[in-house]
Amino acid sequence: MDDEAPSMDVTIWATLDEQAAGPRGELVVHWFRTAIDFFFSGDAKEISDSYAVVTETFSGGRETRLKDVRRNWPALADALRPHPFYANVGFHEPSVDEDEWVDDVGRVGSRHEGRGGTHTGLSAALLAGDRIADPDFCARLLDFLANALDGANPVFARVDHLNFQDTPDLEAALRRTHRRYLRESRTHLRGYSWITGVPSELAIRLGGTRRLSATGAFHAVRELRGGGLLLQATETLADYDDRAMREVFRALAPVLPPGIPEHDPARPDLRVVFEDASGV
After folding, report:
1. Could you tell me the residue ranges of all domains in the chain?
2. Do the strands 119-126 and 10-16 form a parallel or antiparallel pair, or are they unpaired?
3. What one-character DSSP code corresponds to residue 99?
4. DSSP 8-state class, residue 21
5. Of 124, 111, 131, 110, which is closest to residue 39 (Cα–Cα)?
6. Which of 81, 90, 235, 266 has the most neighbouring CB atoms within 10 Å?
7. How far apart are CA 18 and CA 212, in angstroms?
8. How deeply is 53 buried, as exposed, middle or buried, from its count of CB atoms within 10 A (0-12, 13-18, 19+)?
9. Distances from the Cα of 143 to the Cα of 61, 149, 150, angstroms
C-alpha cells in the first residue's frame, strides 16, 4: 500500500513473523475477512464496487484477479490461504465506464517482508474524516485489531492518521535498516503510534497490563489471546497530540531501540520524540 489515494486517511498496520501463534496463511485470511466485515460490509455507494489482486510468489507465479470480493469471498480466501507474496483488495464507487480510473476509498493488503518472507506485513486503509474525533468509531478501530490479531501474537501493530508510509516513523528517524528492525522486532519495539501493538516478549518486559495501565499513558490496554498487547493512547485519534505521544514514548522507552532520532527531509511529518529512549 505504497501509493495511497488521498481519500483514505486512517491506516492500520501489523506485522507477523515465523513465531506467529497460527499458520500465517490462515492469519492472513482472518485479517482480510475481519477487515471486510468491520469496515466494508455495508451497502454504501462509495464502497459498492471492489476488486482483488493476489500474486502467488515474488517471481510471479499464479495471479488471481477478482471483482466483487464479498460475493467471491471463497475464491479470495482460497488464494490467500497459501500465504501469497502479495495481496490487495480495494473498495470504490461504481464507474459507468470500465476504463475510467476511480480512486479507492478503502483497501486491505498483505505482503511478504524480510529475506525469503520471514515476516508478513498486513494493512488496511479507510476514509474516516471527522470520525477520528468519534469515541465509538475509534473504539471500533481497536476492536478491529483485537479481533483480527487475537490469535496471532504479532511483532508489531500501529494505527496512524495521514501517514501512508509502510515503515514506522521511528524506524525512519533512527536510520536503521528495515531488515534489522524485522530481525530485532521481538527485542526492540519498532515504534509507537496512537494504537501500538506490542509482542508478548516486550509486554512482559514492560510489566504487562497492570503496570502499563498504571502509567496513565493509555486510554485502553487490550490483551490478545495469542499473546501481546494493544495499547490505545487516547480515547480518539484526534486527541493524539504531542503531549500524548510523549507519554507513550516514556511508557515504552524500556523496549524502544537506543539512539537519537533524526529529522528526515523525505518525511518532514515524522511523529516521534527526538530523544534517546535509552536515556529515559
Report:
1. 10-265
2. antiparallel
3. T
4. S
5. 124
6. 90
7. 27
8. middle
9. 35, 10, 10
Measured CA to CA in angstroms, residue 63 lies from 54, 57, 58, 116, 123 at distances of 6, 9, 11, 19, 20
* Chain segment 17-65, per-residue pLDDT in tens: 998 888 999 999 999 999 999 999 988 898 999 999 999 988 767 899 9
| Terminal Cα-to-Cα distance of the chain (whole angstroms) | 34
DSSP 166: S
Q: How many CB atoms lie within 10 A of CB 136?
A: 8
Q: How far apart are CA 10 and CA 39, in angstroms?
A: 12
Query: What are the pLDDT digits (tens) for 254-277?
Result: 999 999 999 988 899 999 999 999
With b meaning 16 or more CB within 10 Å and e meaning fewer, what string describes 232-249? bbbebbbbbeeebbebbb
The values of phi and psi at residue 247, to 5°, are -65, -40
Beta carbons within 10 angstroms of residue 6's beta carbon: 9
Strand 10-16 versus strand 60-67 pairing type = unpaired
Residue 199, classed as helix, strand or coil, is: coil
Whether 76 and 89 have beta carbons less than 8 Å apart is answered as: yes
Q: Return the SS3 of 82.
A: coil
Tens of pLDDT along 111-154?
999 888 899 999 999 999 999 999 999 999 999 999 999 889 99
Residue 19, judged by CB atoms within 10 A of its CB (0-12, 13-18, 19+), counts as middle
Residue 205 confidence class, pLDDT cut points 50, 70, 90: very high
Q: What is the pTM of this model?
A: 0.94
- CA 35-41-46 angle, to 5 degrees, is 105
